[in-house]
Amino acid sequence: MSILNKFSADYNGIRLAVCIPARDQMHTVTTFCLYNLSNVLARLGIENKLFLSHGTLIINQRHELVIAAQEWEATHIMFIDSDMEFTPDCVIKLLDRNLPVVAAAYSKRVEPFVVTAWHKIYDWNSHVQEFDQELITCEAVAMGFMLIDVTVFDELELPWFVIGWHGQYTGEDIEFCRMLLNKGIDIHLDLSVTKQLGHLGTKNFKVDPDT
Fold this sequence. Notes:
26% of the residues lie in helices and 23% in strands. With 211 residues, the chain is of the alpha/beta class. The strands form 4 sheets. Strands 2-1-3-9-5-12-7 form a 7-stranded mixed sheet. The model has no long low-confidence stretch (mean pLDDT 92).
């Protein structure tokens, strides 16, 4: 079935800013995924623009991307990290949820290989495990694949992205979730998309003379 036949929502008026914070390089697979996404968005009539921020300070990069999206008059910001593998329908599914904040999580790349979403913020043992549901709320989720209605930022005070400390350093994504919770904004997690995402990494392969 063509992806165009899978979705029947009216996307008129949506301006989707696809925002990528990256360091020096982007994974080849992610680039291919973005190419496919752009094609499908165009065929669905969804106005979209790709924004890249190169650097090493993620809090500045996310801030710059939001500002650029606002200046472009985006209605939605789709944060995608430069090491994600996804299909176009992953983004469309999040759009079709029609929620202020909805994300998909993905596996960590180091042990323990748990999903990057937690029922209780700052409780690292509360990671989401119930994959028999499609959509739940949670208190914290990584921002590597998160769709945000741009008006959400009007409800938050600056700075939007900070590094936190709660017995250990916490990333800007966890602290962004804290800001949302403090404003009573629900964080939704799409588990159907979570099961589709890949978190790309590198592995060192060596010759073993005994094999």
